[in-house]
Every structure is written in C-alpha cells, then in structure tokens.
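Researcher: Sequence recovery benchmark, item below. Answer with residues only.
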C-alpha cells in the first residue's frame, strides 16, 4: 500500500481484471479513496398462537370416566399481528474480498457535486412492476452522469451490465437474490473525479449513514473505478450481494428505510476539467463573435 497525503487507491486482483476488460482502457483497473480532510460522515416479526379453549364440557349423558373435569378458565393475552416482511431486495454484508487501496491527494473544485446519480434496484418482479408503472421495458442499462463524460452501471460477477429501466427520472436496476454485484464508473475524460458512493443509504467506505461531504474514491483519467463492497480494511471489502431486505446490512445496522438504492456524488478536481462540455465549447469557439471597435478593458 502506498500512502501520500491521504487518498486511497485500490487495485483489483487479476480475476477481476477480465471482468472489466470491456469497460477499461487496456490498463489495470484501480480506484482511489480520499481519507483526509474535506468534512462530512442492517428484525424478526413476533408471532402469536391461539390458546386452547378451556370452556368445553362433556355432554350430560356421557360417563364422567371418559372425560377430564372441566379446567378452570384461563385469561387470554392478545398479541399484535406479525409485521409483514418487506418484499424485494436489499444489499447484504457479503464475504470478504481482497481489494487493496493506496492514498493520493485530491482537492475538489467545489463543495457541490459536479453530478449525482441514483440507481434504484429490486428483484425481477419488483422491477417489472415498477417498469409497467412508468411505461418502460428493462434492458442492459448504463447511466451517463453530468454531460455524459462519466458512465455508471451495476455489473454482475462476470462483468455483465445488469438490466434496468430509465424513465420518468427514475433508474431501476434488476438484481437477483444471492447474486453478487459491483458498482463501476467509467471516465472518458483526461481529468480525475472523486466518487462518494452509498448503498441503501450507507457510505460504502465506513458503513455509516452516507453524506456527500465525506471523502470517496478517485477515478483516474480514461480509467474505470470498481467498487466491490463495503470497505472493512485497507485491503478488503465485504462484497455487495443482493438479499432479502431483512438480511440487508442496512436493516441490521441503521434501519431499512433507504434500502434499494445506490447513490453517487461525483466531484470534479480543482483546475482544468476536460469534459465533453468543455471540449464542445472549444470545438464551437467563434473566431469572430462580433464586429465593432475596441473598448477599454473593465
């Protein structure tokens, strides 16, 4: 591990490199996490049973030797109905995965994210129901952030982009119970970006309630960032795995209110940022924007 001024970079093990060959630009995939400065920070339902009826007594013509005497009456405790389990998927705290990091400096150009991405996920039935609600059809889905310079997706263990729906301002990703997934961010620019990521409302680095003001991972120019799970040390993470809401890391730690969503706050670095928007401005620059006489500078 290499440390310099407080930002973490992590490299995928060889088995992960093949999975991102289609996304990365030929080099080893790596990520970085800024750890210093900058500010900011998973229940079983009760069950009830009916008590035996104590009011029964034998018919008058029956011989008492065949029946026990009537038992004294008993009081009955009324219990609440069991709390129904929430349907759909959450993200569990999976097995340990080797994903080492190193440190590097990063200074944000602004306290406001350059772009934000929200990916709602669910099981096949849940996504199909939601898709019908918004009038769309699921298909492999990659989302473009900001001006399109960065692309975000959830991929399976083999690197295949998970299917989903983008309609009416919502992005819905289809998962499968027990399946592992990763978050990937592809950077098509010559600039670095910082990615603060959350799953089910929890920061992927420390597992606490997420806040964009905390530090995140760095994606290098023309590179792909892979986030494998909740970070447990400088060298390992707990894999992201879809599971029942009740088994999710959020439900077992801070609560399941925000289960079913992956969030990314993307920050540009201070200095020149060669995004698509900036390149378009230069490409369409007008050498003669107006005609007139020179004026004194203001």
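Model:
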């Amino acid at each position: 591990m290499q440390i310099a001024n407080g930002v973490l970079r992590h490299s995928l093990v060889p088995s992960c490199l093949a999975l991102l060959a289609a996304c990365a630009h030929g080099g080893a995939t790596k990520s970085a996490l800024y750890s210093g400065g900058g500010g900011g920070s998973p229940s079983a339902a009760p069950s009830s049973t009916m008590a035996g009826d104590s009011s029964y007594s034998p018919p008058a013509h029956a011989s008492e030797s065949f029946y026990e005497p009537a038992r004294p009456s008993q009081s009955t405790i009324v219990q609440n109905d069991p709390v129904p389990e929430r349907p759909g998927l959450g993200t569990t705290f999976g097995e340990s995965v080797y994903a080492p990091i190193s440190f590097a400096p990063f200074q944000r150009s602004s306290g406001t994210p350059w772009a934000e991405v929200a990916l709602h996920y669910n099981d096949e039935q849940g996504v199909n129901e939601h898709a019908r609600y918004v009038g769309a059809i699921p298909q492999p889905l990659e989302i473009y952030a900001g001006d399109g310079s960065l692309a975000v997706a959830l991929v399976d263990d083999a690197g295949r982009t998970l299917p989903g729906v983008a309609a009416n301002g919502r992005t819905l990703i289809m998962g499968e119970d027990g399946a592992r997934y990763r978050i990937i961010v592809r950077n098509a620019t010559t600039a670095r970006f910082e990615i603060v990521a959350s799953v089910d409302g929890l920061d992927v680095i420390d597992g606490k309630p997420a806040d964009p003001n905390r530090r995140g991972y760095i994606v290098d120019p023309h590179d792909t960032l892979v986030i494998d799970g909740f970070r447990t040390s400088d060298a390992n993470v707990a894999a992201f795995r879809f599971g029942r809401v009740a088994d999710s890391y959020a439900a077992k730690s801070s609560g399941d209110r925000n289960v079913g969503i992956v969030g990314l706050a993307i920050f540009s670095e201070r200095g020149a940022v060669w995004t698509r928007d900036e390149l378009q401005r230069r490409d369409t620059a007008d050498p003669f924007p107006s005609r007139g006489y020179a004026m004194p500078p203001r």
